[in-house]
Protein: GST N-terminal domain-containing protein
Organism: Hericium alpestre
Amino acid sequence: MAHHRIALNMKGVPYKTIWVDYCDIEPLSLKLDAPPSTTRAGAPLYTLPLIQDPSTGATVVDSFAIAKYLDATYPGGITLVPEGTDAFQTMFIDVLPSLLTQHLLLLHITRIAPSLNPHSEDYFRRAREMHFGNPLAEIAPVSTHEALWKQAFEGFSHVHGWLNANGECKVFFMGHKPSWADVALVSVLAWLRIYNGRESREWKELMTADEGRWARLWGAMEKYVHRDGGEALP
């Protein structure tokens, strides 16, 4: 579940999702005159998410830049990046991969590929096999899955410890109001829910872990976790 889609739902801004194959990201970005999000080996790298706002004509790339754009352009309702928190929000997004997402990506890597359409699946396989130097099935064999889940689980507990500094009964990083860091966490929860299902061992373990922290966060944010048209997660 993409950060920016949750952000759009929180802002109440209507939108339409257009799915793009991996191999079509760069041509589409060039067509829309969207800037590269970064560089790789000195060459521009075009990535998603990307939004094009018909009301302003703006094209914005990168989840955090999209969040700040939405705050500036649609200031009503929830503020995604409260004033004075840019550094904190950026720092949290930077540490999230080492705490959670890199372990979860490896744990699910062989399930991600077949969930894609054929063009994207081929691109995904080739890119990951080139990056890791192994066939997809050997990047994270089944024998490593328990250790990867344990590392991710410990990452969640680490974040729980940070949030406890806010005191009891406060679900979000900013206390009683959600912000971009909470969007990032809920995106991870939604991704886990999509790939494992609500009846999975992983989901049930997480929903009861850390004094019910993640169940409370999910309960508070689930109303924003839907696709355009209001389609909820299974």
